[in-house]
Amino acid sequence: MDNTQQLLNKLSLETNILLQEMPDIDLYMDQVIQLFDHTFKNTKRNDEEKVLTKTMINNYAKGKLFIPIKNKKYSKKHLILISLVYQLKGALSINDIKATLDSINNKLINEDFELEKFYTSFLAIQQSNALDFEQEFQKRANDVHDEVKKLKDHDAEKVEKILLITSLVNISNSYRKAAELLIDELNEETNLMPDIQTNKKK
User: Fold this and answer.
1) What are phi and psi of 129, to 5 degrees?
2) pLDDT tens string 152-187
3) Angle at CA 134, nearest 5°, toward 178 and 84?
4) CA nearest 64: which of 31, 25, 30, 103?
5) Per-residue pLDDT tens for 97-155?
6) H-type alpha helices, 22-114
7) Among 2, 44, 137, 185, which lies 20 to 30 A Cα-Cα from 111?
8) Contacts of 65 (CB under 8 A, 6+ apart)
């Protein structure tokens, strides 16, 4: 493929809401949606795709994916948590996202958890992942190109795109399954906690 760099540019892999872009004052839902729309507008597949809607936010709240809001306003902590949900929802179910974020939400309610530092680490890892992906994508594109040359198909360009799609989906599924295994471990640890507390009391 000759347009791999153009495709990578369209992905906008490093796009995210930075801490300094999150206001210190609490926001109403419409303002939260505007912030996400403005930040992620270039990452949408098409104009019809929605970045964030009232229904999505309400579903996240009902699913307890983030701590309860007060007076219909969303704090900086809520913006961070919604941003994490936004990143996770592309690969995980609502239940898996809840399991992933449960510990953080519980810490925010019951402890003095430094969410902003956690989010800073998340952003740093995302930037590193973006660089790694560009290198890996180019390698996969080259590998696919070499394989297609062996086929000597008259419609080589289309076949190359199809084979690259299957390659990307394959590696994506591998990462998703690995994440799901880690989520299962989190669920097991959470289920063991009541037994541990009971044993301590004895």
Assistant:
1) -60, -40
2) 888 889 999 999 999 999 999 999 999 999 999 999
3) 50
4) 103
5) 999 999 999 999 998 899 999 999 999 999 999 999 999 999 999 999 999 999 988 88
6) 29-40, 54-62, 76-88, 94-110
7) 185
8) 81, 85, 94, 97, 98, 101, 105
Helix (H, G, I), strand (E, B) or coil at 28: strand
pLDDT value at residue 199: 44
| Torsion region of 166: left, alpha or beta (phi above 0 gives left; psi -120 to 50 gives alpha) | alpha
Is 81 within 8 Å of 100 (Cβ atoms)? no
H helix and E strand count, the chain: 7, 2
Torsion on CA atoms 156, 159, 163, 166, rounded to nearest 10 = 160
Task: Give the distance from CA 45 to its chain's centroid.
Answer: 16
| CA dihedral sign of residues 30, 23, 20, 111 | negative
Which of these, 108, 119, 167, 111, lies nearest to 16 by C-alpha position? 119
Banded pLDDT at 200 (limits 50, 70, 90): very low
